Amino acid sequence: MRRHCGKSPRQSAYFMRNAGIRHEAAGLATLLCVLGILKRDGGAATGALEQLRFGETFCEAYETFLSLNERPQISFEHACHLLRSLEKQNEICLDDCEGCGSPLVVLRYAQRPKVCEFCASTRPPARPGLSVGDC
To answer: Who's near 109: CB < 8 A, 6+ residues apart?
Structure first.
């Protein structure tokens, strides 16, 4: 993946651009949570040693993300922006899929999807006149 030249990414809407990027953003956010990098309480590393560990762990998370995605659309700079945006929760935040419980990256003030891309693609289409409990 080539390094992007110019300003760092600043628009969180990038992560909603298409199903592939939404899927990657959710996977990366999951990695960041599992590794303890993304904290919902906003607690940031304060000392030099803690910041160094944080940076190292973030790089490991991104390398793991790259190994799991054949052609990733999220660059390192976008990954940094995703982390900071999810910490601030001004434009985007994490929600849970109603189908499988996995994390979803969603726009904070927009109508939110109820299920992740995987559940949306594997669910049978709704039939008129039947509710979910009738299936």
So the answer is: none
